[in-house]
Design goal:
435 residues, mainly alpha, 15 helices, 1% strand
């Protein structure tokens, strides 16, 4: 999925099949989900999924969203797009839940995480090359343009000297949010395993991820990544037997943070800090993004109170860009987007889904490094969704929710993520208890 925008735009614009290339992934999802659903029914494993309260909540949210689309119709293209954006990642999540019951869930998990981390290296390396070597017009040669729905380059407040990297993804904020997932996994596996080879791999991924995250200049992703790192560290250290907080080390760490803040403070009014951190120096002609968000939040809350049942899918968020009837409503907040589209009932159902998934991941965190990473990434992305419509991005949403679906059903102890060629094994530092 992180490569989908790049590949679909390139192939679609080259052969005149851009519309199909964009929706092909969702068609594949529907076909695959139907097949796995029929398989689960045929061998008698569908009841376990149907009886899951989490699946009930997802089904209720899906039914409500579809009913609102019928009761409150709007621009057809925007409405269909809104339905797809709001429901596809939850469908993929249930897809993962069923797959984990049909096949060896540990084997599925190992294969999936290897693919995810392997592809992430390609994405991050391309992002760094994009920032350091490629010209601003490079992606126009593979079909990137406003007319095709993907911009070839991004800048901070439209300033050409402050480029932002999006690599093979749709935009810098999506790229940064995707990196929150990758960094969470790299850090969790680094802390969980002692194998020298695995630690070298994860350190390399961490280095690439941190550099790429900086080049995205996504403040929401920076905050999300910091929170995710704190959660991975807290959970990992808490599960280690005999671990004690080193007060001296903690004091030194706090001192380092204080020094960094004090070092930046004298430069708070400089061009770089004002633009990178605050996105609003004196030469900025655009509306202050912080004030803009506050205005959007107030307007969204007012609209939610005035229409508590919602306006229907496709009336807010990224899908509303296609809405020619009611206009564009960018809330800059995924939760407020759902409030606008599905009302208080829809938002409540979605928050119930989020809470159940978070609690289940927390129950596995520490024992299963992957669950620790997913819990941390979930917390980080929960924050970014307060600032951007991140669950609408296919790469971020499919990556997280697909892995979450596979991880929540692990009947056996998780096995090694990587093995060296000579067969060396490694085990997590925490006990390999059954999940």
């Amino acid at each position: 999925m992180p490569l989908h925008i790049f590949i679909s735009t390139w192939i679609g614009s080259s052969f005149g099949v851009l519309a199909f290339a964009k929706i092909a992934k969702d068609v594949v999802l529907l076909i695959g989900f139907t097949l796995v659903l029929l398989s689960a029914y045929y061998i008698g494993k569908l009841n376990a999924v149907i009886q899951d309260k989490l699946v009930w909540a997802i089904a209720a949210y899906g039914v409500l969203t579809v009913l609102l689309a019928i009761i409150k119709p709007t621009d057809q293209d925007a409405e269909i797009l809104g339905l797809v954006y709001n429901l596809r990642f939850l469908l993929f999540f249930v897809y993962g839940l069923i797959l984990a019951r049909l096949y060896d869930s540990n084997n599925l998990w190992q294969r999936a995480i290897r693919v995810v981390l392997g592809v992430s290296v390609i994405v991050m390396v391309f992002g760094i090359i994009q920032y350091t070597i490629l010209p601003d017009t490079a992606l126009t040669h593979v079909g990137y343009s406003r007319a095709n729905g993907v911009l070839p380059v991004f800048f901070i407040d439209d300033k050409p000297d402050l480029e932002r990297v999006m690599s093979t993804m749709r935009d810098p904020n999506s790229f940064g949010s995707y990196l929150v997932i990758i960094l969470s996994f790299a850090l969790a596996y680094l802390l969980a395993y002692k194998n020298k080879y695995l630690r070298q791999v994860t350190v390399g991924i961490l280095a690439l991820g941190i550099l790429s995250l900086w080049f995205s200049f996504s403040r929401s992703a920076w905050i999300g990544a910091l929170l995710a790192a704190i959660i991975v560290g807290a959970v990992s250290f808490k599960k280690k037997k005999g671990f004690r907080v080193n007060k001296k080390l903690l004091t030194i760490g706090a001192g380092c943070v204080a020094v960094m803040v004090l070092a930046v403070y004298p430069f708070r009014n400089t061009y770089l800090v004002q633009n990178v951190i605050f996105h609003a120096d004196e030469s900025t002609t655009l509306e202050d993004p912080n004030e803009l968000r506050l205005r959007f939040y107030k307007e969204s809350l007012r609209a939610g109170v005035e229409t508590p049942l919602g306006h229907g899918p496709g009336t807010a968020g990224l899908a509303s860009i296609r809405n020619t009837q009611e206009g564009v409503v960018l809330n800059e907040n995924y939760y407020l987007q759902l409030l606008h589209e599905t009302g208080f009932i829809g938002l409540l159902l979605f928050l119930v889904i989020v809470l159940i998934v978070a609690l289940r991941l927390y129950g596995k965190a520490g024992v299963h490094p992957g669950a620790t990473a997913l819990l941390a990434a979930f917390a980080g992305l929960a924050v970014t969704n307060f600032l951007v419509h991140i669950w609408s991005n296919e790469a971020v949403a499919y990556t997280f929710w697909g892995l979450a679906g596979l991880s929540l059903y692990q009947p056996q102890a998780p096995r090694l993520l990587f093995r060296r060629a000579h067969g060396q094994h490694d085990a997590p530092q925490t006990p390999a208890t059954s999940i």
